[in-house]
Amino acid sequence: MANAKTILITGAAGNLGGKLRRHLEGRYALRLLDLDPRGDGTIVRADLSTYDPRWADLFQGADVVVHLAANPKAHCTWEEVVGPNLDGLMNVFVTAARAGVKRLIFASSNHVMGGYKDHWQPGQLTPQLAPWPGAAYEVEGERRSSVPYGAGKLAGERLGKCLAGMYGMSVIAVRIGWVRPGDNRAEDIPPERGDWFRLMWLSNRDFCQLMERCIEADPAIRFEVINGMSNNAGMPWNLEHTRQVVGFVPQDGLR
User: 3-class DSSP state for residue 100?
Assistant: First the structure.
């Protein structure tokens, strides 16, 4: 690994971070951060919602930062979003820019477009379509909104664009679909979740491929927003821009 890129992953102990870390191990030099390392001694404990030079110093010399850390619950309240999803992302983005990181990959979300939940056609949702954060869902018998979560992700996209322009760094915001914990197999998706959730499914294999494609994509990319789903038949999400920008060709999909 003498010439391997150094990749810093935030949220490395979580669902997405754990899968990506295992995929990249042995081929890249990894630096791993998480609020709760869960007993893993290779992961540095870091509360990213509060700036601290002890974790910020790890950004020095990193080629790529993959920012996955956040409260992952789509139906968070604003109180639950502000620290981990807003303060944390701003600290990470600014620290990466000041450290001279060449590329920042941001785990945005399909929830940036959640307002289209009941108003979509196949292939309609491109990154160029106006954002519409959040939607209302029935969760455990209660009506809940994903607006705070979706709006926080949209804020991250726009901050990324700003810092790409100011510092010349490369920023790719990936509107990640539904990556279920564990094996995340298509046949295990609960049918009662409905088409909106089912059709945003992203397999483990496709998720890892997509993140690696972003890591290795053209260094000339300044700022891009791309969709990240598997090749699900009839889905609203359009993957053509993703293919053009990073060369992502999903291997899995619902039929």
Answer: coil
Range 193-196, long-range pairs (CB < 8 A, 24+ positions): 195/234, 196/117
Domain residue limits at 81? 6-246
| Residues forming a β-bridge with 30 | 7
Amino acid present at 88: G
Angle between helices 15-24 and 204-216 (to 10 degrees): 60
Instruction: Specify the DSSP class assigned to residue 87.
Output: I
The span from the first CA to the last CA of the chain, in angstroms, equals: 39
In a domain, 253, yes or no: no
Which CATH number does the domain housing residue 115 bear?
A: 3.40.50.720
pLDDT in tens, 17-59: 999 999 999 999 999 999 999 999 999 999 999 999 999 999 9
- 255/252 Cα distance (integer angstroms): 10
| Residue 1 included in any domain | no
Residue 92 phi/psi, 5° resolution? -65, -45
Amino acid at 109: S
Classify burial at 37, counting beta carbons within 10 Å of its beta carbon; exposed 0-12, middle 13-18, buried 19 or more: middle
SS3 234: coil
Residue 138 is predicted with a pLDDT of 63
Amino acid, single-letter form, for residue 152? G
Q: What are phi and psi of 94, to 5 degrees?
A: -70, -40
Specify if 222 maps to a domain. yes
Q: Domain for residue 150, yes or no?
A: yes
Count of domains forming the chain? 1
* Residues making up the chain, counted from first to last: 255
Model confidence pLDDT, tens digit, residues 70-112: 999 988 899 999 999 999 999 999 999 999 999 999 999 999 9
Angstrom distance (rounded) from CA 231 to CA 177: 11
